[in-house]
């Protein structure tokens, strides 16, 4: 079964309350996760020193005229900033500083993410966030890795995420979701655990995209965004525990999310009004197909659109895939510059071919 079809299937079961296990149905899935569980014990022994806490980054960023822009951050340890040295190095803080610089208005950041959180924890985080912020402008959600490592049903995880996006949209917040990272990039994980983790995390990311877009949000594929640099610069892109991103890794993630946050705020970016450019790998098509391409091309944004005046086609919701140019971020967010990305190949990648044969 191809990844697009799996993504549609998982999202559909999430919408109708299905319970597909994280590994899929049948003895093969049970055997795969039995192996995953055994090798996870080995992985925990080789992962570096864990952190005691994450920096508290909630507060006001930037200066300017007008009322502050209310920015929410929800999710897991990556949203919390586990591995950052101080409050200025988290994804939320980097984006808040950048939004303040681009808009000329202060930004009030409220971070309710929790280390170790799964998608099922988002509802409680939203309760807490909306008690503190009555009218959020944009909510950034980063979640999924713990759903994979805890063997949560993908349909269950996606259902909780979809409900969270709907609640946030009902509060008039724009929603930008950084999809599940590719856990196959975590080098302390031994093979074949790493290959299994890669397949399941990519499948979850694709299904997350389908569900989020259908609920009125937009996604940015984080995938293996910092993975390619890990082989060449492992001490720079990953923190001391070899699992969470370092400040440089968070800056890379923030630079991918920032254009989508700015666009959600109505702040024009170089790509705002441009038609999708096929030469850059951009396209309009069914959301499941866009989701699969985004998984293979970290940094890509997927959002809902219409085609010939209709939002839904024969194969589901229409979506636009954009490969947004990364915006430069302030120096407090790390040494990140704008860069042009190379389009991903149209064909399946090596992992997808292996997954289809399994």
Automatic annotation (TrEMBL):
Protein name as annotated: GDSL family lipase
Lineage of producing organism: Bacteria, Bacillati, Actinomycetota, Actinomycetes, Micrococcales
Gene Ontology MF terms: phosphatidylcholine lysophospholipase activity
Signal peptide: 1-22
Domain of life: Bacteria
Alphabetical list of Gene3D superfamilies matching this protein: SGNH hydrolase
Keyword Ion transport: no
Region named Disordered: 265-358
InterPro entries xref list: Ester_Hydrolysis_Enzymes (IPR051532), SGNH_hydro (IPR013830), SGNH_hydro_sf (IPR036514)
One Pfam family in the UniProt entry: Lipase_GDSL_2
């Amino acid at each position: 079964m191809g990844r697009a079809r799996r993504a549609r299937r998982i999202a559909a079961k999430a919408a109708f309350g299905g319970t597909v296990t994280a590994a899929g149905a049948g003895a093969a899935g049970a055997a795969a996760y039995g192996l995953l569980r055994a090798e996870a014990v080995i992985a925990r022994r080789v992962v570096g020193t864990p952190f005691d806490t994450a920096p508290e980054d909630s507060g006001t960023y930037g200066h300017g005229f007008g009322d502050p822009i209310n920015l929410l951050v929800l999710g897991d340890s990556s949203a919390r900033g586990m591995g950052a040295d101080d409050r200025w190095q988290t994804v939320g803080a980097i984006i808040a500083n950048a939004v303040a610089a681009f808009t000329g208005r202060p930004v009030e950041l409220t971070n309710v993410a929790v280390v170790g959180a799964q998608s099922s924890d988002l509802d409680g985080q939203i309760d807490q966030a909306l008690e503190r912020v009555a009218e959020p402008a944009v909510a950034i959600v980063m979640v999924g890795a713990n759903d994979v490592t805890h063997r949560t049903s993908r349909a269950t995880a996606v259902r909780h995420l979809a409900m969270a996006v709907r609640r946030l949209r009902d509060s008039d917040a724009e929603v930008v979701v950084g999809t599940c990272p590719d856990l196959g990039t975590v080098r302390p994980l031994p093979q074949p655990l790493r290959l299994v983790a890669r397949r399941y995390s990519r499948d979850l990311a694709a299904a997350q995209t389908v569900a989020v877009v259908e609920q009125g949000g937009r996604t940015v594929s984080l995938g293996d965004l910092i993975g390619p640099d890990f082989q060449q610069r492992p001490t720079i892109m990953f923190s001391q525990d070899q699992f969470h991103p370092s400040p440089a890794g968070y800056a890379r993630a923030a630079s991918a999310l920032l254009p989508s946050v700015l666009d959600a705020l109505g702040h024009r970016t170089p790509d705002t009004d441009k038609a999708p450019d096929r030469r850059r790998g951009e396209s309009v098509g069914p959301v499941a197909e866009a989701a699969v391409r985004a998984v293979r091309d970290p940094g890509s944004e997927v959002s809902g659109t219409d085609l010939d005046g209709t939002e839904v086609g024969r194969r589901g919701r229409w979506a636009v895939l954009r490969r947004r140019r990364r915006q430069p971020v302030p120096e407090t967010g790390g040494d990140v510059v704008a860069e042009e990305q190379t389009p991903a190949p149209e064909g399946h990648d090596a992992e997808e071919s292996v997954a289809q044969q399994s």
